[in-house]
Specification:
The complex is a heterodimer of chains A (664) and B (179). By secondary structure, chain A is α+β, with helices and mostly antiparallel strands. Chain A is built from 20 helices and 16 strands. In chain A, helix 8 packs antiparallel against helix 17 and helix 19 packs across helix 20. In chain B, the strands form 2 sheets. Chain B has a two-stranded antiparallel ribbon with strand order 1-4. The chains are: A alpha+beta (664), B mainly alpha (179).
């Protein structure tokens, strides 16, 4: 399948008619559509899905252009149309999907059912596929379950990698086989299938002549019944397997959530504890603050006056050496001596004489005229103050250190609490998880029991069937006619066995080849001791190869996941392409069609270097590559794929509801 | 005479004294100074040490007061601080003898000289309030700010004036001055 053109009419923000032509050249096979975020890259990618399968990944399923829809008058209609032109198996098809939107009288717009048509050119004439057959045709061109690997979205790659790695349906394996050209085998085997009533062998069973022996008919009926039972059980067993996988997935999810919740609970407890500590620390800080202030408030003046006291005392002590005061003598003593007329030593004291003058002068240095007492008082006070004073600065500094510690603790606590709040945020209200888990665990137990029981029953039916077949064979051999049928049947059985053998071999080879290709591609874009394993159901495992030969399935990172998907898709495309090129060879048993690769934002998760490897690898692997890309990645992509780019387009965003596609 | 009758802060100093004596953290009931008189006791020393004098601000009718009973109760402190400043204010009076007289002989004698000394003392009180306000209040927005400013002030003061003085030295000088 090669994509030629895409026509959009009023599809979401692409208002009016817009056309895009894809590069189909065998050398220049890359089409790059570039646009900034929100300009319509994803919408364009979704236009393919909508056109081919009538579905989009958008939350809003309305595909009509909003601006035009709003302008509709009541009773007015708006036609949305996507037309995809493609070539498949040498025939050119036009796939058309349309949807009519009508505004009713209340002003509500309703979309009618989409109409889907496929037209093809035959002998230059355009013909339409009949309405009943369009879905079958589409399935032939590209089955939906595979389409997402060819039309894929880089931003949703996480889910894809999970899907690609496990739990895929039989349909998927079937589709991959078909893509790899194993369809012819599958139909042949289906045609011969001995267990089916409608297969070749089945019809032989029906044609036994029962006239000779009625028991033959009875046997055939019983065998068929046993066979039906076995098939019913097989079908149920498949259901059980997938139901168990689903239940197991749910259990795993719940366990992750539950352990997350246990974590949340623990964090909540931590937060509570931290909050309590915070309150206590705040109280401690407050009291330490009070302590500092109390100290500052008590007797602070003697601390602040210390230098003044020191200087005053220095001055006073120097002065006191010159003090002419006589210790313990009062003015009254002198006055008494003057009045008495002679000194203690006997010298006469007469008015106007030297002795008299000397005594009078001494009065100045004695109380009350002397200030010595006041000074003494002052000195005593200084002494008392000094003795009772503590070092205010030192004790405040000590307290301040404590306070700073508290403040640091508080800061740390607050930031811890905030950190917890951030983690816990949005994890509330999960509720009832444990019950859900128990329920799913019970489902698994019940299913396991049912599976074992079914297997036992199946075994019993198989034994019965085989016994009946042997008994019937004995009976049929007695009749010539039936004997002939028995021989034909044996031939048919041989054919079936032989075909099965070849198919298994081919399938195995195809799968190994696919595995080899996938690995080659994977290793070219993702280096580092890992390889990919593809199992019977085309499930993928990433395996670490270490030096000891020990291997293990590993959890993969985003870049790894994307690389795995790229490798897987590329591997399939590469094989499909090879098969189609072998078409000419006579011996070829397998046939297949090349497929394009349509990618939305495929490079956003890669770094520069890896973009280069991916850009190198893709155009070589796929017949046609169409990339929708944001400008920065786009420049890188063009830089690396330049020679291969055949068509370039740009989104010109006018507003939220209008984007134009222009060729560059 | 000083420290006998009611004292009123006026003008810009009202706000400053109010802020110095108000709670800044409700949970800790924390105050820098418990009462107006605590500011009044410390301010002259700070004013004198930082060499800051301020005129009485007569603008605005608002006042905040210290009652006479409080002044009388704290008389010893107040008188002692007054004496310290009188003894050491060399700018106003170069002669130590005269300063000694101002501090001890003239204290409270209501002479013209003494009244002028008391006025000078008051200017140191007001200057000290300005310094305390700048050092402890200005630009602080949270309890943490107040405490940090207080610590910074204490640290600066300690470095500037107190670091080299030990209690022993003072006590030695006391002994010397008393003999």
């Amino acid at each position: 399948m090669l994509l030629k053109t895409l026509k959009l009419i009023n599809f979401r923000q692409f208002s009016g008619e817009q056309n895009i032509e894809f590069a189909t050249d065998s050398v220049k096979n890359v089409t790059v559509v570039m646009g900034e975020n929100g300009s319509g890259k994803t919408t364009l990618a979704q236009a393919f899905t909508w056109c081919l399968y009538g579905d989009t990944d958008f939350e809003d399923k309305v595909v009509a252009n909003r601006a035009l829809e709003r302008k509709l008058m009541p009773g007015g209609e708006l036609q949305v149309k996507v037309e995809l032109n493609l070539v498949h198996s040498g025939t050119e098809y036009t796939v058309i999907r349309e949807q009519l939107y009508r505004k009713d009288l209340t002003g509500r717009t309703k979309g009618q059912n989409t109409t889907f048509n496929i037209a093809y050119k035959k002998d230059g004439q355009q013909e339409f596929v009949r309405a009943l057959e369009v879905d079958a045709y589409m399935k032939q061109i590209l089955p939906k379950e595979l389409s997402r690997y060819f039309f894929f979205d880089g931003e949703r790659i996480g889910n894809m990698s999970k899907e690609i790695k496990k739990g895929k349906s039989q349909d998927f394996a079937q589709a991959v086989r078909g893509l790899l050209g194993l369809n012819a085998f599958i139909s042949a085997l289906e045609h011969l299938k001995p267990t089916s009533k409608y297969g070749v062998i089945g019809s032989y069973n029906e044609s036994y002549d029962s006239k000779s022996d009625k028991r033959i008919a009875q046997y055939t009926e019983d065998i068929q019944m046993a066979q039906d039972n076995i098939e019913r059980i097989d079908k149920r067993l498949l259901e059980i397997t997938s139901e168990m996988e689903i239940a197991q997935d749910n259990c795993d999810d719940l366990n992750v959530k539950l352990s997350g919740m246990a974590e949340t609970e623990r964090l909540q407890k931590d937060k509570l504890r931290l909050s309590e500590t915070l309150t206590k620390t705040r109280q401690a800080r407050a009291s330490s603050m009070s302590a500092i202030l109390k100290q500052f408030n008590t007797n602070n003046s003697s601390y602040f006056a210390k230098s003044l006291i020191f200087k005053s005392l220095e001055n006073l002590s120097q002065e006191s050496k010159l003090d002419k005061g006589i210790p313990d003598m009062h003015a009254r003593t002198i006055e008494f001596l003057i009045k008495r007329g002679f000194c203690v030593c006997g010298t006469k004291v007469e008015f106007g004489k030297e002795t008299y003058n000397n005594l009078n002068k001494a009065l100045e240095y004695l109380p009350p005229q002397s200030i010595g007492t006041s000074i003494n008082q002052f000195v005593i006070e200084s002494e008392l103050k000094t003795k009772s004073s503590s070092d205010l600065f030192e004790s405040i500094a000590d307290q301040y250190k404590v306070l700073r510690d508290y403040e640091n603790q508080i800061e740390q606590l607050i930031s811890d609490i905030l950190a917890i709040e951030k983690i816990v945020e949005g994890k509330k209200g999960i509720g009832n998880l444990q019950q859900d888990l128990w329920r799913y665990e019970k489902v698994i137990r019940d299913l396991t029991a049912e599976r074992d029981e079914s297997n036992r029953k199946k075994g019993a039916h198989e034994t019965t069937r085989d016994r009946l077949i042997t008994e019937r064979a004995e009976l049929t051999l007695r009749d010539e006619n039936n004997k002939k049928i028995e021989i034909y049947k044996a031939y048919a059985q041989y054919m079936f066995d032989e075909l099965s053998r070849v198919y298994k071999k081919n399938e195995e080879e195809t799968r190994r080849k696919l595995e080899r290709y996938v690995n080659e591609i994977f290793k070219s874009i993702y280096e580092g001791g890992m390889s990919i394993n593809v199992d019977e159901r085309y499930n993928i495992q990433v395996i670490v190869e270490d030096e000891g030969g020990y291997s293990n399935d590993v959890e993969t990172s985003t870049a790894q996941s994307i690389s795995v998907i790229f490798a897987f898709i590329s591997g399939i495309i590469k094989m499909a392409r090879e098969n189609s090129l072998e078409l000419e060879s006579e011996t070829k048993l397998l046939e297949s069609e090349p497929y394009p690769l349509v990618m939305d934002a495929p490079l956003s998760a890669f770094d520069r270097r890896r973009i280069k490897t991916v850009c190198d690898a893709l155009p070589k692997i796929a017949e046609q590559v169409i990339i929708f890309i944001k400008d920065t990645d786009g420049e890188l992509a063009e830089e690396n794929m330049g020679a291969k780019v055949g068509k370039r387009y740009l989104f010109e965003k006018k507003n939220e509801f209008e984007t134009k596609l222009v060729a560059r | 005479m000083l420290f006998q009758k009611e004292y009123s802060f006026r003008g810009s100093h009202v706000d400053k004294v109010n802020k110095l004596t108000s709670q800044f953290d409700s949970s800790a009931s924390a105050k820098l100074f418990n009462r107006n008189i605590d500011v009044y006791i410390l301010a002259p020393i700070i004013g004198f040490l930082y060499g800051r004098r301020a005129e009485i601000d007569k603008s605005g009718g608002e006042t905040t007061k210290i009652f006479p009973e409080q002044l009388i109760r704290e008389q010893t402190y107040l008188k002692y601080n007054y004496q310290l400043i009188m003894l050491l204010d060399k700018k106003r009076e170069p002669s130590f003898d005269e300063r000694e007289n101002k501090a001890f002989r003239n204290y409270g004698n209501n002479s013209e000289e003494t009244l002028s000394d008391e006025l000078s003392y008051e200017k140191y009180v007001l200057g000290g309030i300005d310094v305390l306000y700048e050092k402890l209040i200005e630009n602080a927005n949270s309890p943490e700010d107040y405490i940090t400013k207080l610590y910074d002030f204490m640290e600066e003061f300690n470095e500037r004036y107190n670091e080299d003085i030990s209690d022993e030295k003072i006590l030695d000088l006391c002994a010397l001055a008393r003999n």
